[in-house]
Amino acid sequence: MKSLFLSSVFLMLSILSTANLQAQQENNYVVLTKKVPQLQPIILAAKALKAEDGTSFGDFQVIICGKGIKAITQPEEINGFIEKAEEVGVQIVACGFSLNKFQVDQTKIPKEIKTVENGILYNFQLQKKNYKSISL
């Protein structure tokens, strides 16, 4: 009976350790920016990290907050970045708080851009999930 119990505990610990190692092997990234033109170097960094990380490259999100958020409704400013981001696997996210504060017409936001209620809170929530984070 004792050996069955110890074997069960050992098996459960092995499974949990393996699951934890697999979760740790994935590299996820989040960048908080206030300026849409910064998407260019951010996307280039994502592309380089994707090549460097290989199969361990996970999720890469860019959150746009602040006054510069208005640019996401201007096709001539955002469409090229959306295309490049999709090629690399980068998700562009708009801060709902900023959209409201700066009275951005949300019907003009491209469908490829995800909106969250509060970009700063969302950034912290991703960090709690072990995303590597930087703010520009």
Write a concise keyword list for the protein shown above.
136 residues, alpha/beta, Hypothetical Protein Ychn, Chain: A, five-stranded parallel beta sheet, 5 helices, 5 strands, globular
Give a written overview of the molecule:
Residues 1-23 form the signal peptide. It comes from Salegentibacter echinorum. This is Intracellular sulfur oxidation protein, DsrE/DsrF family. It contains five helices and five strands. It is of the alpha/beta class and 136 residues long. The protein has one domain: Hypothetical Protein Ychn, Chain: A, CATH 3.40.1260. It has a five-stranded parallel β-sheet with strand order 4-3-2-1-5, sandwiched between helices. Strand 1 (27-33), helix 2 (39-53) and strand 2 form a beta-alpha-beta unit.
Under CATH, the homologous superfamily reads: DsrEFH-like
Strand content: 15-25%
The rounded distance between the terminal residues' Cα atoms is 59 Å
Number of domains: 1
Poorly predicted sequence stretches spanning 5 or more consecutive residues:
none
Class by alpha and beta content? alpha/beta
- Indicate the CATH topology: Hypothetical Protein Ychn, Chain: A
Number of distinct helices: 5
Assign an overall shape.
globular
List the strand order in the largest sheet. 4-3-2-1-5
Q: What series of H and E elements makes up the topology?
A: HEHEHEHEHE
Describe the biggest sheet? 5 strands, parallel
What is the subunit organization of this protein? Answer: single chain
| Rg, alpha carbons | 19 Å
CATH class: Alpha Beta
Give the % helix.
40-55%
CATH architecture designation: 3-Layer(aba) Sandwich
Protein name: Intracellular sulfur oxidation protein, DsrE/DsrF family
Keywords: Signal
Signal peptide: 1-23
